[in-house]
Amino acid sequence: MSTFQRSYPPAEPPAGLAHWLYFCGDDLLLPQPDATPLWPGISEESHLAAASHRVYLGLLDGAPLLAAHVATDDVPAGWVRLGLRQAFARSDATLTALTSLAIQLLRWHATMRWCPSCAQALVPVDGTWGRECPQCRQSWYPPVSPAVIVLIHDGERLLLTTKPGWGRRYSLVAGFVEPGETFEACVVREVLEEVGVVVDEVCYQSGQSWPFPHQIMVGFTARYVSGEIAIDASELAHAAWFHRDALPELPQPYTIARRLIDGWLAGAR
């Protein structure tokens, strides 16, 4: 298993070969469709010299890991763009997490350059990814938006939902945590608002970074108590109970939704 040690400004990568993640917009850049998203063993001076911004992330298996953004007009001929969801589908957990870190920090550096209060140029906060205004002394840090996702069950069935445009695919109830809420309270509220049922036995299972644009998904299971399904039509297209032996099309294996479902099916309830 790969090991990753984070670095923070003002740290600089050591000289020598490095690993690189290249992005154009929110897509990864690959020299050919079947290439790995992570470029190993490239010299410190990347051959993509047109990269408009670079971020040193840390050490991956002892070698520097950097991420770079390349403008559309500077993408080399023949290179292809790979969406993040496609990349996650063909990556292990370590590479998925590093890709999520890289794209969020690149976005942060590109967009958070000026103080929102007084328009002064921001400066780095040493030892963090934060930015500080030298005039009004306010500080900002890369945003992380917590959201819960919950597997609702009654012992043998799952309550699954689908949204407009999802086709036959069903997933789990999810929603953002609001000010003043615990994760568990958010689960109860979101379930009641989206599908109209009451749950208890809310149990944390696992989490997943989700860079669309900067969520952290916090996964739970919860047991159905009462109520008839009544969907929030502004959020959902349909919701229904499915027996564990007759489930519909499910989310991709790399998603926390699928991990929660697979864990429940395996008996981890």
Biggest β-sheet description? 7 strands, mixed
The CATH homologous superfamily of the largest domain is called Nucleoside Triphosphate Pyrophosphohydrolase
Number of helices: 4
Task: Kindly provide the name of the CATH class of the largest domain.
Answer: Alpha Beta
Mean pLDDT: 92
Roughly what percent helix? 10-25%
Percent in strands: 25-35%
Low confidence ranges: none
Radius of gyration from the CA trace? 21 Å
SS-derived structural category: alpha+beta
Span of the ends, CA to CA? 28 Å
CATH-defined fold name of the largest domain: Nucleoside Triphosphate Pyrophosphohydrolase
What string gives the helices and strands in order? EEEEEEEHHEEEEEEHEEEH
Backbone shape: globular
- For the secondary structure, the number of strands is 16
Going by CATH, the architecture of the largest domain would be Alpha-Beta Complex
Overview of the molecule:
This protein is α+β, with helices and mostly antiparallel strands and about 270 residues long. The protein has 2 domains: about 5-110, Nucleoside Triphosphate Pyrophosphohydrolase, CATH 3.90.79.20; about 145-265, Alpha-Beta Complex (Nucleoside Triphosphate Pyrophosphohydrolase), CATH 3.90.79. Helices cover about 20% and strands about 35% of the residues. The protein has 4 helices and 16 strands. It has helices spanning about 85-90, 95-110, 185-195, 255-265, and strands at about 5, 20-25, 25-30, 40, 55-60, 65-70, 80, 125, 130, 140, 145-155, 155-160, 175, 200-210, 215-225, 240-245. The strands form 3 sheets. Strands 1, 2, 3, 4, 5, 6 and 7 form a 7-stranded mixed beta sheet that branches. Strands 11, 12, 13, 14, 15 and 16 form a 6-stranded mixed beta sheet that branches. The chain is globular.
